[in-house]
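Take a minute with the sequence and fold tokens given here and flag any structure token that looks odd. Thanks in advance.
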Amino acid sequence: MRGRFRTVHYEDRSGAIVAGGVSQELAAENPDRVSLLIQNVGADTLWVAFELPAVQSAPSFRLEPGAFFRMEAPDFVDRSAVTIIGPNAGAAFVAREA
């Protein structure tokens, strides 16, 4: 029995916090988004938001060091702009979008 595989091209959205305490765009609005993965690979807690600037508290989503956030179709995938914030410049994150 053969499975059907689809080829997905991921865009690298990895980076680092540019200015501590300032929300920055991680990914623009994308009506074709089918997957988003974000991992906090630094030592600081990061916060991620959709459609609005990220803040270092709710309603943004908290990413502890080493934690990751994933959305994939056919489950819910938010297609609005994605923003991220952290307390210190240089805090690294890995992100992939398809």
Summary: The first strand starts at residue 11 and ends at 12. The chain has a mean pLDDT of 94. The radius of gyration is 14 Å. The CA atoms of residues 7 and 98 lie 10 Å apart.
